[in-house]
Design a protein that fits this description.
The chain is of the alpha+beta class. The protein has 3 domains: 215 residues, Multidrug efflux transporter AcrB transmembrane domain (Multidrug efflux transporter AcrB transmembrane fold, Up-down Bundle); 83 residues, 2-Layer Sandwich (Gyrase A, domain 2); 126 residues, Gyrase A, domain 2, CATH 3.30.1360.200. A 6-stranded mixed beta sheet has the order 11-10-16-15-9-12. A 4-stranded antiparallel beta sheet has the order 7-8-2-18. Helix 4 crosses helix 6, helix 6 runs antiparallel to helix 7 and helix 12 runs antiparallel to helix 13. It is elongated.
Length: 533
């Protein structure tokens, strides 16, 4: 038995030391160099309500994703019909979710129907009429495909925003779907909310389009826009005064290359002017397309358009191989970094709109921490006093287990890199009460056994054995409830569930395993003849 006590003591001591190792960096930032290299150095992460930060609820405009799909399909369908030499006129997107075109004869209609069936199974003819031998056809996308696009837009938006936030360097962000088309974002410890909001909400749709220098921009601004063209705007910055003036561009509507072809985007400094720019590197497919595009359009201007804004429109002097380009402009270093982040993370498949925005100041978070600490201290002191008053020396054993319970709980939070929130502190306070609840059951059972005249050894063994199933049952049911809270809850609810779950497991260990070591030691090794209970 003594050997068993020694083994259990070593196990308990090892677990306590591991918890202290994980917990130590939380209480000091001045860690020795060997500690930083070889031992845990992560602190307990504080949630938004404790360290301050930003809370956002975004709505994804999934219908815009459907419109973008229709726009791409319009261009693709036009090129397919031209490649197959099928005659058509006025192929364009009408409304938000339909495509219309005219077919001059029945032969063209038959050939078109075959292309539609073979290559565009998600599209169907929603309206058709024949006027003077010309068939006017309207195409629509199936409802099933629309739902797939909406769902994919939400999933891609979630992943893209998560990638942007990760590259921004925010620790322990909370980014989860909420409802059908919303995303909940919590950014604890954010120092520049405006910058973060701009980074998250930027669509970052990168497009390369040819500038139409054959037609007049002035005429286009008067309303005479050539078919297949679009007006876009950029900025011209005076290097001496810094004044920005808006510059109109007449662009070909067809996108020659998009951000999907990017492999990386890095901030670099121009050797000539010392200004930051974003260097782009295309993937293998994008590099081949870029080389072909520049080779076919030498001496023409190629506009680099981001979210509808022209950043530059240089003249292509020669075919460019190697798959590299750059976005120049009057960027600050911070703007260039943020642009590189959103380009690396990819474009959002649909625009997002901020529905809810809250900023929690760090002072309010500190107040919450202080109140949480004091509530835990007061709760702990009251429990300690009660246990000593009611159960005497046995109550002191339970109080030692309670202190160990808090150390192990905080150590586990640090080890698992969990985020401590204000409801999480509430979970700790609840755990304090639950930590001695098991000992109360054990002590009451032991008292009953002592009243029947059993020896201290027999009373302790019976007390622990008879109370175990009751303790296990009550803790397992609470643990199941905590797991459901974690699985279906969000934000603060999860914080409460995490601390409660860890607290339940740790309290079972300290209340049953650790306290039994004390009693066994005094009964078997010290041969005590009575128990102060």
């Amino acid at each position: 038995m003594f050997r068993s006590i020694r083994v259990r003591s070593i196990i308990t001591l090892a677990i306590i030391l591991i918890a202290v190792f994980y917990l130590f960096p939380t209480f000091t930032s001045d860690l020795p160099e060997f500690w930083k290299k070889n031992l845990p150095k992560d602190k307990i992460h504080l949630g938004l309500d404790l360290q301050g930060g930003m809370h956002l609820v975004l709505e994804v405009d999934a219908d815009k994703a459907i419109e973008a799909t229709m726009e791409r399909s319009t261009v693709d369908l036009k090129e397919t019909l031209m490649d197959k030499r099928i005659r058509f006129r006025r192929l364009e997107r009408t409304g938000n979710q339909t495509i219309s075109l005219e077919l001059p004869d029945s032969a063209s209609r038959s050939a078109f129907d075959k292309v539609l069936k073979d290559s565009y199974p998600d599209f169907a003819v929603v309206a058709s009429e024949t006027i003077e031998g010309t068939e006017r056809v309207s195409l629509g996308i199936s409802d099933k495909r629309k739902e797939e696009i909406r769902k994919l837009a939400i999933e891609q938006s979630l992943e893209t925003i998560r990638n942007r936030v990760d590259q921004f360097g925010i620790t322990e962000p909370e980014i989860v779907p909420q409802g059908k088309d919303r995303i909940l974002i919590q950014l604890p410890g954010i120092k520049d909310p405006a910058r973060a909001k701009n980074l998250i909400g930027k669509t970052a749709l990168l497009e390369f389009k040819l500038v139409d220098d054959e037609h007049s921009v002035d005429e286009a601004l008067k309303g005479n826009i050539p078919e297949g063209d679009v007006i876009a705007y950029g900025w011209n910055v005076n290097p001496e005064s810094g004044r920005r003036t808006e510059v109109p561009y007449l662009l070909k509507n067809k996108t020659l290359l998009s951000g999907d072809a990017l492999e990386s985007a890095q901030v670099k400094i121009s050797d000539r002017f010392g200004q930051p720019h974003v260097a782009l590197k295309f993937n293998s497919r994008g590099a081949a397309d870029f080389e072909r595009i520049t080779g076919e359009n030498v001496k023409k201007r190629l506009a680099i358009v981001l979210d509808g804004v022209v950043h530059s429109a240089p003249v292509i002097q020669e075919k460019i191989s190697g798959g590299q380009a750059q976005i120049t402009g009057s960027f600050t270093m911070e703007e260039a970094r943020d642009l590189a982040i959103v380009l690396r993370a990819g474009a959002l498949p649909a625009p997002v709109k901020i529905l809810e925005e809250r900023t929690v100041g760090p002072s309010l978070g500190q107040d919450s921490i202080d109140m949480g600490i004091w509530s835990s201290i007061i709760a702990g002191i009251l429990v300690i006093i009660f246990m000593i008053f009611y159960y005497k020396l046995s109550g002191m054993v339970a109080d030692v287990a309670l202190i160990l319970n808090l150390i192990l709980l905080l150590g586990a939070l640090s080890a698992f890199k969990a985020t401590l929130t204000l409801p999480g502190i509430a979970g700790i306070v609840l755990t304090i009460g639950m930590a001695v609840d098991a000992n109360v059951l054990i002590f009451e059972r032991t008292r009953e056994e002592l009243r029947t005249g059993k020896t201290p050894r027999a009373a302790i063994e019976a007390g622990y054995d008879k109370a175990f199933l009751t303790i296990l049952d009550s803790n397992v049911t609470t643990l199941v409830a905590a797991l459901f809270l974690f699985g279906f809850g969000t934000g603060p609810i999860k914080g409460f569930a995490v601390t409660l779950t860890i607290g339940i497991i740790v309290s079972m260990f300290t209340a049953i395993f650790v306290t039994r070591i004390f009693f066994d030691y005094f009964i078997w090794n010290r041969k005590v003849s009575s128990i102060s209970i």
